[in-house]
Please model this.
Amino acid sequence: MAKSTDTTPSDKAPKKAKKPNGFQQFLQVFQMTRKTDPNAVWLMLLVFLGITAVSLLIGFLLDNWITGLIIGILLGVLGAVFILSRRAERAAYAQIEGQPGAAGAALNSLRRGWIVEEQPVAVNPRTQDVVFRAIGRPGVVLVSEGPSARVRQLIEGERKRLARILPNVPIHVIETGREESQTPLRSVAGKMNKLKPQLTKVEVATVSKRIGSLGTRLPIPKGIDPTRIRPDRRAMRGR
Model:
């Protein structure tokens, strides 16, 4: 007797989850931003109405209010989306701020040209203070996470270690946090991109290989995993 080839629904391969389309992504960004920053909705509405009103007024003065209204609506929508983009970026960082590994997650928003270590290069297991590293044309940048007075020893240890093997490469330090001398998470990428280039692309690759040849890997303390808390890059760009 031939065996039955019928399969139950559970035997079928699970369907892949569909990726959200552009409108769904926009809606997700809007909802996330509204939840974190309720004032963003009112600001978007104010910008939309303000731009539309000005354009409509100009249309009346030119005796072509229909064209003015159409242009105003289009420009108003663009203005509202721009506000959403800016507020979404702040909301994305607000979601990860204070979590272990947030400084490393903030490095994921860097533009091309940077080589970023996703794992910390220096760790204090007791306090969970960490130092992350990025390599680019400005040199090596150490980004710390933790109170300034407490994390300074970690920074100096890593700086001295790098200075021994890279004596002619600039080493910059950015401390993240809310203290007076520290840099907020949302400003880290911008501050790094403003650093003056001092290395060529070939030299950046050489420096990365030189550091990588050391083969030093630190165990990540429990609770620190920057790959799991990286900010939503679509949200930060408003799309």
